[in-house]
Amino acid sequence: MVAMARFNYDDRRYEEFISGCLKGYSENKSLTTVILYDGEIVGTAGFNQLNWSNKTGQIGYWLSEDFQGKGIMTRVAKALTDYAFKELKLNKVEIRAAAENNKSRGIAERLGFMNEGCIRQAEWLYDHFVDHIVYGMLANEWNQQE
């Protein structure tokens, strides 16, 4: 049996999140996975959006605080980017992170994603709007890095 790290959701929010993940997957518009570390679910990661017309995907992720700083999410984002280009045959992958979220932004930067700009007040987070920094990687750029 897989243990689960402590998340800050009540049962209703879990159900909404899982329902949304299943709906997006069934419609081929998103793909959400869990992150396992030593047999424990410690986060989620995947493609929040898949746009097949434009061959783009948007990676999203969340990791329990207790497991941050171990390189887990960088490895996960790298694997998702590889999957996007090699298996899904996408042309572009984006990672969007809150401007103040240096840990999340660092993942995109370590993987060589290009800072493409800022979307102002892109997300309502907790009790206020936050700007998003958009990072992008093209398939040919990723292939040149390897």
Number of helices: 4
**CATH class division:** Alpha Beta
Our estimate of the beta-strand percent is: 35-45%
CATH superfamily membership, which one?
Gcn5-related N-acetyltransferase (GNAT)
Total number of beta strands: 7
| Low-pLDDT runs | 1-6
**N-to-C order of helices and strands:** EHEEEHEHEEH
Query: Largest sheet at a glance?
Result: 7 strands, mixed
The helix content is 25-40%
CATH topology (level 3) name: Aminopeptidase
Compute the separation of the termini in Å: 36 Å
Number of domains: 1
User: Structural class given helices, strands, pairing?
Assistant: alpha/beta
Over the alpha carbons, how many angstroms does the gyration radius reach?
A: 15 Å
CATH architecture: 3-Layer(aba) Sandwich
Short recap of the structure:
With 146 residues, this protein is α/β, with parallel strands linked by helices.
